[in-house]
Amino acid sequence: MNVTPSATVEPFEHPALFYRDADEYLAGTVPFLLEGLAAGEPVAVAVPGRNLELIRGALGAAAAEVRLIDMGEAGRNPGRIIPGVLRAFTDLHPGRRVRIIGEPIWPGRSATEYPACLQHEALINLAFSGRDVTILCPYDLRGLPHEVIEDARMTHPVLVDGSVASASAHYALERVLRDCNRPLPAPEDAAVMRYGQGFGDDPLGRVRAFATEHAARIGLTGERLEDLRLIASELAANSLDYGGGSGTLRVWQEGDRVVFDVSDGGHITDPLAGRCPTPIHQLGSRGLLVTNLLSDLVRIHTGQGGTTIRVYFDVDGADPLEHLRSIEDAGFTGSPEGLANA
Length: 342
Hints:
- By secondary structure, the protein is an alpha/beta fold.
- Helices cover 38% and strands 22% of the residues.
- The chain is built from twelve helices and twelve strands.
- The protein has helices at 22-38, 49-59, 71-74, 81-90, 114-127, 146-155, 173-180, 203-218, 222-242, 287-294, 321-325, 336-340; strands at 15-19, 43-47, 67-70, 98-102, 133-140, 158-161, 164-167, 191-196, 246-254, 257-264, 297-303, 306-314.
- α1 packs across α2 and α5 (114-127) packs across α7 (173-180).
- The longest helix has 21 residues, at 222-242.
């Protein structure tokens, strides 16, 4: 199945593949991959583990020529997918057409995660505009709610159902990005502190101590606690430099997750902030990138009235750097370990 038009002004292609069962899934994905291999294009698959095994088995010996990535792990945080999965692969192959199957939305994604997934699908169109890349996104028609399928029609310019590919009449990138920029009220029982101008000395030290103390009480330990400490410090530093010189930190528990957010008077105007690989020596622009790479979920609300960045850590979650290492290179001038140990 060739979903790429023979002639187009925009080299980037972002079709949604609708499927109903395993047979339709393989019919829509395997020929796409084999066509890429036959054309000499670098090819990757980033889908949840069960579907990854379906594709691996159907490809047979050809699977050795395809980069296979478990999206259930590498893409647990949707904000990590563009820099840590998609750009990590495409940036390894400059000047070449690249094909990727990416499935960031599957049955079982939580209501808390879904807005970040939807935002990710919309931002792909900005992140890869003008690049020689095709990213095919499968959607399970039987397993996903009707509203999710309707959203897919708004985030993908091309829709594929069976052997038919057609332009989406509902594509609405700006509307989706606007709808995903939702206010993020915190629970009344959250632990709260203010930092910055007028709130005592050593604001970053106080932020690190406050965040780690409360996260440890909830159950976060080891390297994951150190990741949270780093992120809290990076986000608070952004408040001091770009958010009016002060901010508010809140920490609380949601089920088996530690949640914290940072609010300040800044306004993030770049919709791709934190999703573009950045050399680690560019300290002023890496805070959001570090946040996306190291956390389990990130939500952001930003506007003229200020910004809230909310970060989730699974108490028993795995180290996301293990999955970034498996992709070999996340497009940084330096290693993922360098980010974590900064």
